[in-house]
Amino acid sequence: MSGMKTPVSVLRLPRGPEPNSRGFDPTSPRFIALCPTTLPSSSSSSGSADEEEQRLRAELRERFLRTLLLMTGKRVRFDMHEHVRVHARFGASDIDVLNLQVCDLETPLGVQREALLRSQDVIACSFEV
Amino acid sequence: MLQWRDRSPQHWHELVNHEVCVTNRDQQRFEGRVFTVDPVSASVVLLSVQESERLSVRVILGHAVTDVQILRRGTEETERQMKSVLLPDRAQSLSAEELKSRRESVRLWLEQNRVPVTEDGEVLRVANALTISAPYRPGDCSSANEIILSRVQSLVESNDEKIRGHLRS
Predict the structure, then answer these.
(1) β-strand B55-60 against B44-49: which pairing, if any?
(2) Residue environment code for B37-59, b if the CB has 16+ CB neighbours within 10 A, otherwise e
(3) Residues 6 or more apart from B54 whose CB is under 8 A from it?
């Protein structure tokens, strides 16, 4: 696998985000189909319980974003379904972690210079610090 | 039993810093210490030490997680070690007086540059739109407004350079 560095031509480009928005549309069929309502409600709806929940969400999310930052530019191993494993350089994720932008994706067909991985196809990503 | 993705942020937060075993739909198991669980995608970030002594970070996507079991609870020390690897900028090595004088220095510099800044405990607030937390470096500024953020960050950076210049001379 490591000898194969022939870049392959792009077979199909994904559709880009809407030109008039920031790319995130909560009414889009994609978001509705793939993202359940993101705020699972806690049974008590008092103000301070909501604030505490929000604080925890913010702390958890910040740590996650910093993990993604740490992953950027690194060579990452992607474990997919059916025990398929590929390596690529991680670029970015979208806001809902539905798509992962990578480059130099090593596939059995050769090295794909730029690629978009659907997060539904990915089970885990690993990298070394 | 609630699905992993439907759990509350409290439930996810309780797993942080503990060593867990994550099972996925194909019965694969991943072990490691929980650094965080993303509240948007329910993805679990695990830190583990490989045989080669190198630290490996694994992000298990939320849709693939079926179960998470705690194996061993973490301690303050393990939390500190985890943070030092994954949040390397947060070195809390400055004393309270040093932090106070840094905060004062940044506040004065911003005022001199006609930026409306107030002190709110340990945090500096700019025009209700931006916050600077300890230790008041450019990376400690947070704001929802990119223009204000970039302006204040470059000011904080130039203040740092001034201080470094004084130390040298």
Answers:
(1) antiparallel
(2) bbbbbbbbbbbeeeeeeebbbbb
(3) A128, A129
In this prediction the pTM is 0.68
Residue A68 to chain B, least CA–CA distance (Å): 9
Interatomic CA distance for residues B118 and B128, integer angstroms: 9
Query: pLDDT of chain B along its 169 residues, tens only?
Result: 678 988 999 999 999 999 999 999 888 999 999 999 999 999 999 999 888 878 999 999 999 999 999 999 999 999 988 988 888 765 556 677 888 888 999 999 999 999 999 998 889 999 889 999 888 888 889 898 999 999 999 999 998 887 777 655 4
Pairing status of strand B19-24 against strand B29-37 = antiparallel
**Which residues does chain A have within 8 Å of residue B53's beta carbon, measured at their own beta carbons?**
none
Set of chain A residues whose Cβ sits within 8 Å of the Cβ of B36: 60, 63-64, 67
CB contact under 8 A, B61 and A127: no
Q: Which residue has the tokens 């509240």?
A: B39
Structure token digits, residue B65: 């997680």
Q: Taking the CB of residue B113, how many other CB atoms lie within 10 A of it? A: 13
Query: ipTM, 2 decimals?
Result: 0.70
